[in-house]
Amino acid sequence: MPRVFIPPPLQKHADGHRELDIDATTVGGVIDELERRFPGLVNRLRDGEDLRSGLMVAVDSTMTDRGLLQELTPDCEVHFLPSVGGG
Fold first, then answer.
1. The pTM is what?
2. 53: how many CB neighbours lie within 10 A of its CB?
3. Which InterPro entries match (predicted)?
């Protein structure tokens, strides 16, 4: 199962969990399962059918631009991270 890391600002909305094993095949599936376990958390991760503005997802060590559609392997790590801008 993918290992999902909960960012510190969201841990209080996930009963203090820092990481969880989630049985899902896409990032969207991860978010759906997080919502099932921790009602209301979805609003902090997703805006409709997209990731919330200012949020990125890294699978293993690679940032993805596929958002909720990003496919996952059973042994991957999923990290939700704030977007970083600048120039």
1. 0.91
2. 7
3. Beta-grasp_dom_sf, Mopterin_synth/thiamin_S_b, Sulfur_Carrier/Prot_Modifier, ThiS/MoaD-like
